[in-house]
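# nightly structure sweep
# worker-07 picked up a monomer target from the shared queue
# config: single-sequence mode, recycle default, output format = structure tokens
# input follows
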Amino acid sequence: MIWKPNVTVAAVIEQDGKYLLIEEEPEVGSGLFLNQPAGHLDPGESIIHGSVRETLEETAYTFVPEYLLGIYQWYSQRVDTTYLRFAFCGRVTHHDPNRVLDDGILRAAWFGLSEIQQRTQRHRSPLVMRCIQDHIAGKRYPLELLTHYES
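# output follows
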């Protein structure tokens, strides 16, 4: 048996001192969670494009990645799964308020740092706060670190 982590992408977007987060209910009855716009990488998709797609699908904002924020490995005991998260930071350029959001996404909203810290019990994973802390600390890596080959 070959073990493989779940590859996910995430967007850490700060604007005017607030961060764009989603409020989601991943499974019916699981409760409401806060997360960055994030999700699984699709087959054949580049890691960078995955972050753009997921942000649009979950927030209706067009995301322009400018830097790789970091690569994070996290094991969730709740679902017995290891995640390998590629988090990007950048800016949004357009919002389509009429776009229907992905299933399970209740809304996308801008939250100040203190609001996010007060809601840590509702974070989807510890990576939510860790990515924000890394963003505040100024961590930025060039997108050129990632290469996508197509056959």
